[in-house]
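Our working data are protein records whose layout never changes between entries. Instead of coordinates, the fold is spelled out as a row of discrete tokens. Here is such a record, shown just as it appears in the course material:
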Amino acid sequence: SEDRKVISTFAYKETIRLLEEIYVHYKYNRKILVAPTGRKLQSLGIFLFKQMHPDIQIIYPVTKGFANEYTEGSHALWQIAFDNFANWNDMLNDYRRYTVQKLKHLLTS
């Protein structure tokens, strides 16, 4: 049976939380591939998740065009400003290091 989860296309943090749930469940016995087909904010969530877990793989789908029934054109433009992206990236790397240290502690206890 297929397990499906539905999240808002604008909720990039929810995307990260859901992917984290899946990752925790499957990280030791499956290869995790993500193919972002949703909105750009979901893709942002997937990108940030990839920074936290570099062992996952992202496969970007490529389309020949957009069918009229699936697109309504462009709407308002949004921007997310990262004051210092290097600091953001360091924070995500620290998250990964923490989980590795936690695993090391569990293995040596």
